[in-house]
Write a structure and sequence with these properties.
alpha/beta, Rossmann fold, seven-stranded parallel beta sheet, 7 helices, NAD(P)-bd_dom_sf
Length: 247
């Protein structure tokens, strides 16, 4: 059995970072990527020794090539790939411009799909691929149409990807966080009043009555990455405290 190894895109904060910490604790070799230089530097200092932190922009295929080379040189192969990098920028239609649209789809859709393409030769047979999608792809969120579309495109790909990679027993699944307390809200660039409106509406609709934690999502990703989920593929697992269950 090869030593388990995972690449986590968008691993310097929030769900990605929580997953890196959890999988490292469980014996995985871990590489994480992040875009912001200051956040990357801080993560290198703060994560445990042995976790590799690389600066890479999910929108730039040259960066993805470099990450693939680094993974190959350090680990030789991967048993898990967590495609988590993404942006959330609530934007009303009246304020939407082409640049915001292109940025969302380049980061959330193209970046994650081509990371899989570039890393595919390094995935071991029986490996696990997990995409972060989010419940916004299937449930309405004010101002969330572009984010939902860019993430939802990944969700539409999951069944076909799962079938295509099934001959190698590579499992392809998605995790869809609901309202999770992570820095993605403050980094969205949306006006504070819009964020407050969205988060208040989301909290009010959650049967559990609270936002989730990054660790709770990380536990689901860890399950999907493990052999315990060896017969699970083509699925989207919602981690949302019952969001959307009420009529």
């Amino acid at each position: 059995m090869p030593e388990p190894a995972v690449l986590i895109t968008g691993g310097t904060s929030g769900i990605g970072r929580a997953t890196a910490e959890l999988l490292h604790d469980r014996g995985y070799l871990v590489i994480v990527t992040g875009q912001d230089p200051a956040r990357v530097a801080a993560t290198r200092r703060e994560l445990p020794d042995g976790v590799v932190v690389l600066r890479a922009d999910a929108r730039t295929l040259a960066d993805t090539d470099r990450v693939a080379e680094e993974v190959g040189a350090r680990f030789g192969g991967l048993t898990a790939l967590f495609l988590n990098a993404g942006i959330t920028r609530p934007t009303p239609l009246t304020s939407l411009d082409e640049a915001a649209y292109d940025d969302a789809f380049s980061t959330n859709t193209k970046g994650q799909l081509f990371t899989l393409v570039k890393l595919l030769p390094l995935l071991t047979d029986g490996a696990s691929v997990v995409f972060t999608v989010g419940i916004g792809a299937t449930r309405g969120i004010p101002g969330g149409s572009v984010t939902a579309g860019s993430r939802g495109a990944l969700l539409a790909m999951i069944p076909s990807l799962a079938l295509e990679l099934a001959p190698r027993r590579i499992r392809v699944n998605a995790v869809s966080p609901g309202a999770i307390d992570t820095p993605i809200w403050s980094k969205s660039g949306a006006p504070p009043e819009m964020i407050a409106e969205i988060t208040t509406e989301m909290a009010a609709s959650i049967p559990f009555g609270r936002f989730g934690t990054a660790r709770e999502v990380a536990e689901v990703v860890a399950f999907l990455a493990s052999d315990k989920a060896g017969y699970v593929t083509g699925q989207d697992i919602v981690v949302g405290g019952g969001s959307g269950l009420r009529a």
